[in-house]
Amino acid sequence: MAGNAGGGHGASIGSWLACLVIIAGFAVGGIAMVVWNWPMFWVGVGVTVLGCVMAHVVHIMDDVTEYGGGRSAAGDPEPGV
Q: What pTM, to 2 d.p., does this model score?
């Protein structure tokens, strides 16, 4: 699990970077569709795929829990938390 003991939902820096790369790829591809530039579109697709590979490498799905916050997914959260 991610080492984010200071709060938040426990996502690692690598996970955030992978998401940003994927978003950047979608943005480049979307802009390319508007300006009708096919080479730029395929660069956007490549950047998006690179972000997906990066997400797999940094184990992005290990940051996901049923309740978030790094709690154990073994049971329901404690009342009042």
A: 0.70
